[in-house]
Design brief:
By secondary structure, this protein is mainly alpha-helical. Helix content is 64%, strand content 0%.
């Protein structure tokens, strides 16, 4: 769950850029009152960059959360942890790093 908290804090700390490129008055004028601003490639791209979607937190109303199974945060975190443990394959340490670790462990064992 911590990684999700860090992700939202990073998004908040990034802030919101307000300039001609993000306001897109030219695009609003182009699509006009009857047009659909959000179907335009520029606005859709910006929306995808600005939005933060949680992977664990559930933003649904309580009734929808219940209909989807009513999983607690603990259950969602446990499921995510199990997935990570089953699928994560870390890169092996380089031989230099392994030698340094072995040297440190040897020093400790000799004390």
């Amino acid at each position: 769950m911590t990684d999700e908290i860090v992700a939202i804090v990073r998004r908040i700390m990034r802030g919101v850029t307000v300039d001609a490129e993000t306001i897109m008055l030219d695009l609003i004028e182009k699509v006009g009152p009857a047009g659909n601003f959000m179907t335009e490639a520029r606005s859709a791209k910006l929306c995808r960059q600005e939005i933060w979607l949680p992977g664990l937190m559930d933003r649904n109303p309580h009734t929808i959360w219940e209909q989807k199974g009513g999983k607690s945060m603990e259950e969602r975190v446990t499921r995510r942890l199990q997935h990570i443990l089953e699928t994560h394959r870390p890169e092996p340490l380089s031989s230099i790093v392994r030698e340094q670790i072995d040297g440190i462990l040897a020093e400790i064992a000799a004390q």
